[in-house]
Amino acid sequence: MGNVFVLDHPLIQHKLTYIRNKETGTKEFRELVDEVAMLMAFEITRNLPLQDKTIHTPVVEAQAKVLSGKKIGLIPILRAGLGMVDGVLKLIPAAKVGHVGLYRDPETFQPVEYYIKLPSDINERELIVIDPMLATGGSANDAIHSLKKRGAENIRLMCLIAAPEGVEMIKEEHPDVDIYLGALDEKLDEKGYIVPGLGDAGDRLFGTK
Ligand code: PRP
Ligand code: URA
């Protein structure tokens, strides 16, 4: 069964409070999302495997550690996932980036896929699906199904804020996927917004309404 990790590092929690605040404007919102994404990436990569490497320091020959194992692929869900990509790339600059374009129908809340472009070797990579919001779970569920259909095997999901409904959907549909969250909120409202949440992540990131 996939695990759910709430990354309750004080810096993440502090910055999330400002992200949630409706008085926070577009520029600051973007900067904070970028910073939290970087901090989350630090926590998520804690368990990456290492291997020994012999190097020569200016003083002696030494055994040191380098990353081993699968390379990383980042899969932001358009549009709001884009706001977290640069923050993660600051720590994993060589990661390849694929895009899944989905929007949520405002009436039915059902995700509609309109774009997909992925690295050719996704089956050999450790993929991190990125979206600030996991609400009903429909968008992330669809994106993960799309990736699996194309051969992906190792997938994690990273979101700023989730509702219990979304977490349950991913746990049920994708028990192999670990979920990393900045916060697990109370519930969804009747419009499918996370409560207390942060409002519409895409609109707040890009200044649209
Ligand atoms: C938001 C968000 C997620 C989705 C979450 O995207 O970024 O992708 O809603 O909701 P769900 O879990 O109920 O599917 P939105 O559809 O608003 O599109 P956008 O990123 O283009 O603004
Ligand atoms: N999408 C958002 O951007 N915010 C929510 O609260 C739910 C879905």
Automatic annotation (TrEMBL):
Binds 1 Mg(2+) ion per subunit. The magnesium is bound as Mg-PRPP. Residues 6-208 form the Phosphoribosyltransferase domain. Transmembrane segments: none annotated. InterPro entries: PRTase-like (IPR029057), PRTase_dom (IPR000836), Upp_B (IPR034332), UPRT (IPR005765), UPRTase/APRTase (IPR050054). SUPFAM superfamilies: PRTase-like. Gene3D superfamilies: 3.40.50.2020. 5-phospho-alpha-D-ribose 1-diphosphate binds at R79, R104, D131, P132, M133, L134, A135, T136, G137, G138, S139, D200. Pfam families: UPRTase. Uracil binds at I194, G199, D200, A201. GO terms for molecular function: GTP binding; magnesium ion binding; uracil phosphoribosyltransferase activity. Its cofactor is Mg(2+). It is an enzyme of class 2 (transferase). Keywords: Allosteric enzyme, Glycosyltransferase, GTP-binding, Magnesium, Nucleotide-binding, Transferase. One of its GO terms (cellular component) is cytoplasm. Allosterically activated by GTP. GO terms for biological process: UMP salvage; uracil salvage. The keyword GTP-binding applies. It catalyses: UMP + diphosphate = 5-phospho-alpha-D-ribose 1-diphosphate + uracil. Catalyzes the conversion of uracil and 5-phospho-alpha-D-ribose 1-diphosphate (PRPP) to UMP and diphosphate. Belongs to the UPRTase family. This is Uracil phosphoribosyltransferase.
